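Hi R.,

Here are the chain sequences for the assembly we discussed:
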Amino acid sequence: MASYRSIRDLDWTLIIIVLIICGLGVLEIYSATLNTDYKSAWWKHVLFTAVGVGMMMIVAQIDYHSLLGRVPAMYFISIALLVVTFIVGPRLLGGRRWIPIAGMTIQVSEFVKIVLILLVARYLTELKADELEARDLVKLAVLTGIPFILVNRQPDLGTSLTYLPIVGGCVFLAGLRWQHVVAVALVAVVLLPAAWFVLEPYQKARLTTFLDPDGDPKGRGYQVIQSKIAVGNGGIWGRGVTRGSQTQLRFLPVSLTDFLFAAFAEEHGFVGVVVALGLYFLLILQIIQTAQMAPDRAGLYVCMGVGSLLLFHVFVNVGMLVGRVPVVGIPLPLMSSGGSSLLSVFLMLGLVQSVRLRRFVN
Amino acid sequence: MNLFPQSRPSSFSDRPLLTDDTKVIAAKLTFFHYAALAIFIFLISGFWELQVVKESIYAEAAERNRIKSRPILAPRGKILDRDGRVIVDNHSSFSLLLSRENLKEDHLKNIAEGLNLDLTELTQRLARYKKRPRYEPIIIKDELTPGDISFVEAHRNQDTFPEMELIHTQRRLYPRDGLAAHVIGYVGEISEPELDQPEFIKYKQGDVIGKDGIEKQYNEMLMGTDGQRRVLVDNMGNERQVLENKEAKPGQPLQLTLDLDLQAVAELSMEGRRGAVVALDPRSGEVLAMVSRPAFDPNAFAGRIPTKLWNTIIQDPDKPLLNRAVQAQLAPGSTFKPIMALAGLETGAISEGFSASCSGVANWYGRPFKCHQKGGHGHVELHRALAQSCDVYFYALGNKMGIDTIAQYAELVGLGQKTGVDIPHEASGLVPSTKWKMRAYRQKWFAGETISVSIGQGALIVTPIQLASAIGGMATGGVWQKPHLVRRRGTEAPARRAELNLDNVNQVVYGMYGVVNEGGTGVRARLAGVEVCGKTGTAQLASNDYLKSSAGKDLKDTAWFVGFANKSPEIIVVAMFEAGEHGNLAAPIVRDVIKAYFDKKTRMTPPEPAKTLAQAMFSRELLR
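And here is the predicted structure of the full complex:
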């Protein structure tokens, strides 16, 4: 088998797209953190990108089937680490989301995504049926529900929500009965008001803010307003690198992570936005294309799990900046500063590459 | 639960996808394509809206975000007296600016509490600014006390109430005890109804403008232009760079014709009374003193007056805000007699031998008209009639001339019309005539009414400044200079002139000299070394049919005294106070003001130095 697995067969288009996106990220992080305490963040991003590309290459060499075989172990380790995060995690920015290891902090919930992708892929593959039964759905809901709740209670609504498109996308591919879709929709309608009582105050505030950003200028709505101002201020051609007033004068909140793309939009304008989003679109298409080439259902689910997740990330993060999606704190893949997020995306892309390398099935 | 069946990884790849299955999957993947496309179009349309369609709106918002403008308030011009002494000054103080951009409603309560403000008033105030752009901060409290300032300093950080900001201002400092309060007026924040009027078009919400008196009349000169400071700030509100620093243009100082020395004397003499004093230089029309009592403290109005205090002031039955010097319209009583006398002489009604026999009462048109002297004056001619203020003489004179002749001369000297003094709200008084009565009451004039008007009663009403101007102009020989508080530069308003027979004028003046110096009713105005001429007036409110209904409660007579010095006058003073019993009680006030005038004059102009020793030796001083 090793004979047809050469470097040449890797998805080089995808790698180039990813590197350009990372490059834009580095540029914007550099610009947004100029003259701040985070001014070395761009360098970290370069470093993590390099490490990430290396890890992607390594993962690509591993047969994804052997990874699927180790899902139970990985799943239980993930749950254990999430529980550990709960216990030892330092309280930062209002939540326990990180585990400190060797001078670095690791956001376990980011890596749990990969485990969930593999879990869903394996679970759905083993069902060997064209349509899912209700009990299959319930089992899957339980399996993904445990990490979902653990992350949600950190509290980290954003990351926990990113687990849903993985399941949703793959289940859709596996085959749903329309009755189930209706049932889930009905449950959602009933549960949404109920969820209102479960949501943390800050989460409720985000939802109400989404509905009326002007209601609370210096609070959550402030972020949306400032983000929209920054984006709008970019105009068609942008203000230029390091010239975005809202970015440079720090009106834009958390401008190197969740709101980085607003800073990008201010400095590079509508043209820059179309180019960047176009790159993301190409990236998604490339992943779907790999899914089409997948030698088996497992490969298909792995690719589309990754694809759905990235699409969701882009949709929520960028939609939030222009006020079309509630403020949910999730990073923009590959661009936002943050090692865990960046590495987990590279690992996922490694999985996609692994599927691609094994596309020639006799 | 058998969630993870024990199967080998290789078993997955062993199972090829079914052909029909592949078609379904391919369709579903195509769906993913379109879903992704839809999402990206949705996102890009969001950017299209913000960055292309509404770019200007957000660019402006970004400008506002980073550029804060803070007004630099222009100090108003000082108000000086004729010698350049400061009457109204400014003093440095701090005001509290409230930024409305990041204002949180729930902070208001705490801010109001911390600064001792009324919460409802504060919210109303904010509501009034709804129409103004949000980036414009508003002043919510002036004259911050040290306690207020420390409250602001302690709470204006990011975590508590960052919407508060201190601003340095120049507040008005008015004289204490209401000195010249009515002349000066006061300043206040422009009101909502004022903002709707065209004359206030150039002012904006929150501007402090002159509300009354000189402050209002000369607001434009005094006000100056506010400056502006525009700074680049970061999101913490720290100034990064000063973009513009337009200094405020202070208002111009304004010199009044008022003499603080005379003003002070007049103010003191009116202490505790309800009335007015006006002192004019009839040669120029300059107002040397103008007092109205009771007064108010303009300092209380100097900025944003609390509603409660305002209400107590405007509901005070003594009406302290009324400038009685120009607004009080009262019957002049006997102070009208010099004008009657002039009319009589000019028309020839007082010819050689015109006299009256006063028995203390006279019957006219079937009704008895009393003289103030119960026993009567006996035989009286003009000079004694003026000096002793014989009513019976003037009844006869008035009857002889008729109301329209009286009205003609009253109007000639300036009654029944505004003098045009440069202060707001001047009243015009009223000179009754047949025409007036027909117009106002659709009734014929009754000859009996003429008898009342002859002694300054009836429908005749004047303001103190009118009377001062009228008598002063007459005594100068028929030249009525427009009274004014601020010297007009260059364009002096032309005086009103009338061809009067100077002999007639002198006869009237001589009569008024008799009032003071020949044992007349005004002896209390007598001054050594100065020829004071004058006339008392004791005006009944009760006899005045036209005022009876409105006055009602307090029907005690009004005391008037009009006096000037010298015979060719350089100062004329009118003193009036309500419920004053008799005009001779007003005479000392006039005397004191005139005395102060001449005392000052001798102080100011030292005797001319002798040119030579011989002259000095033979000068009057040495011979004495």
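The CA atoms of residues 365 and 416 of chain B lie 27 Å apart. The radius of gyration of chain B is 38 Å.

Let me know if anything looks off.

Best,
T.
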